[in-house]
Amino acid sequence: MAIHHVNKIGVISLGKIFGAVYGIMGLILGAIMTLMSLMMGSLMGNEGAFAGLMFGVGSIITLPIFYGVLGLISGIITALIYNVVTGFIGGLEIEVD
Predict the structure, then answer these.
(1) How far apart are CA 97 and CA 92, in angstroms?
(2) What is the DSSP letter of 93?
(3) Is the pLDDT of residue 8 over 70?
(4) What total number of domains does the chain contain?
(5) Where are the transmembrane segments (predicted)?
(6) pTM for this one?
(7) Which residues constitute the domain of residue 36?
């Protein structure tokens, strides 16, 4: 087993990974919000059901996009900060076979 150090992370690479992970979390959260709004809307009658449907569809479309963009930006910032910090204190130590 050899020990290696990760001294630099690809900024765009980490941004894409964070964007995908956050987008999947946004999709899950959007699905939960859709179900909740449909259930609550159905309790309020026809007008409430329509409002719940519109809010639910909006959630399942906008939340994955919003979370994905947020993840992309936070991944880029994280990689930039990591690359600066490793210049001062060294890289992350990992063990590989």
Answers:
(1) 16
(2) E
(3) yes
(4) 1
(5) 17-36, 48-67, 73-92
(6) 0.80
(7) 11-84
